[in-house]
Structures are given as C-alpha cells and as structure tokens.
Design brief:
The protein has 282 residues and is an alpha+beta fold. The protein has 6 helices and 7 strands; from the N terminus they run H-E-E-E-H-H-H-E-H-H-E-E-E.
C-alpha cells in the first residue's frame, strides 16, 4: 500500500514537473517574442526619424544660399547615412507633375496609357476625372484637394493608382507640366513617346548637369532660364525620403511643401501634404 502511494506521489511530481516546464517554455517564448517586437519597433522608430532627417536635409539643400550647393528638384537621388540608416532622398518640383485640377483630358489619357491602360479605358478614366471636377458638364467645380481622392475615381483600381500617384499633384495649377522636372509617365504623355524612351531621357537628365527652370513653353508661369514658380505663393516641392536600417527595417515619407521665396527665417516653408510609407519618386 505504501509502495503504491509512493508511486502515485512520484507520478504526480513528474506530471507537475512536465507542466511547469511547459509553462516556463511558454513564458520564455512569449518573452522572446515581446523582446523581438520591441526591438523591431525601436528599429522602425529609428528608421522613421532617419526619414525625417532626410526631409530636413532636403529643405536645407533646397534653400542653400549658393546655387552650386542647391538640391535639384528633378527626382535625382541624394544619399547619406544617419544613425546607422541609409537615407535616400528625391525631390520633385510639382510643376513637373500633372495637376489633377488643371491637366487636360488628352494629357491625362496619355498618362494612363503610359501606365499600361488600354486606350478605351484610359479615355474613360480621363473623361471621368474631367467630369468629376466639373470641367465637362458645366456644373459647379469640385476640385481634387488631395491625391488620394483619385483612388475613388470610378474605374480606378489600387494597382493603377499605385503606378500614377507619384506622377500627379493638386498644387501646381498648371495645365501642362514642365518637362524639365517630369517623371517618365508624364514625359511619355507630353512627348508622345514610349515609357522606355521616357525613362531613358529621365535617367540621362538626372545624371547630367542641373537644368533649373528651363521650361517647355507650354506651362503657364514658366520663366525661361529662371526659377519656375508654382502656385500658392512659393515654390512647391514634393520630397520622397526613404530610410533603411541594417536589419531591413525601412520607413518612407512623401511630403509636399511650399518653400518661401524670400529669405525669411520665421517661416521658411509650409507643409501642404504629409504621407507615410512612400518609397519611390517618379
């Protein structure tokens, strides 16, 4: 009887030990998971701060007092290291983008086709854009106030929106973009060439000497061989800043801002739009 009780007690102890070991293993796994999540969060926060540092660097570069050191807003990449992150910044003057409220249907149709849409659907999308802003029906104008409104256009889908969102703006007020700053989709539509040809031209332009405000003769407000002044009382630039950490964490910013034309230090710029997780400039 006593042997049986001792055997039962030993079995209970073994079971308790197994259960305790299982609980400890679960606690250890949860602890590791929480630690990894905390580390990931910390590294992502560092990446976000590094991307913001890229934005600050872009503003300083755009406002550099001497033209030799000024950043060129045509989408060429500027890369530097910050707190262990590799930061890549591209700036595009919005005068090179298609304005959703001013671009004619033909230009919009060409951009859609350059993005891979067939001619029929491209025409329908362009007509829908013009109609939605009141330009074709004579009804009260309902302007696009943000790029993201384009995603809700009838016939638009996420894949197509993803291709063109970095090629459009609501802040230039120009009916024709300036080719000096345009990306491949817009340039292909402006020049009536293929996307491949446009990409070759854009790549060559970004690798070459800076051409500031050359204009293309079609953009209202363009000053030949001088600064291109966009709407809203200043020069409007779109800054794409991406920071990547050694462990693969990355964060991106897509910020549209208006630079003051004067040398005032009180308010050298104003943020017009702030979008996160953007990675590529047009």
């Amino acid at each position: 009887m006593m042997r049986r009780e001792r055997g039962t007690a030993l079995l209970l102890v073994l079971w308790a030990t197994v259960l305790l070991a299982a609980l400890l293993a679960g606690v250890a796994a949860a602890s590791r998971s929480h630690s990894q999540a905390a580390l990931y969060g910390a590294e992502y926060a560092r990446a976000e701060l590094a991307a913001e540092a890229g934005l600050a660097q872009a503003i300083a570069g755009l406002r550099a007092p001497d033209q030799q050191h000024q950043w060129v807003p045509d989408g060429r990449p500027y890369t530097f290291a910050f707190d262990g992150a590799k930061v890549t910044v591209k700036v595009v003057d919005v005068s090179g983008m298609a304005d959703l409220n001013a671009a004619p249907a033909g230009l919009l149709r060409g951009i859609f086709q350059a993005a891979g849409v067939d001619a029929l659907r491209a025409g329908q999308l362009a007509d829908a854009m013009v109609a939605s802003r009141g330009g074709a029906s004579g009804r009260a104008v309902q302007p696009f106030r943000a790029i993201d409104q384009l995603a809700r256009l009838p016939g638009m889908d996420p894949a197509l929106f993803g291709k063109i969102e970095n090629a459009v703006t609501v802040y230039s007020g120009r009916n024709f973009p300036d080719a000096s700053y345009s990306g491949a989709l817009v340039l292909a539509s402006l020049r009536g060439i293929s996307v491949a040809q446009a990409e070759t031209l854009v790549d060559a332009r970004r690798k070459g000497a800076a051409r500031r405000g050359a204009g293309n003769g079609q953009a209202f407000g363009a000053v030949a061989n001088g600064p291109l002044v966009a709407g809203y009382g200043g020069v409007v630039e779109r800054v794409f800043s991406v920071a990547e950490m050694p462990d693969g964490n990355r964060a991106g910013l897509d910020v549209t801002l208006r630079l003051a034309l004067t040398g005032t230090q009180a308010r050298p710029y104003k943020v017009l739009d702030w979008r996160t997780d953007s990675a590529q400039a047009p």
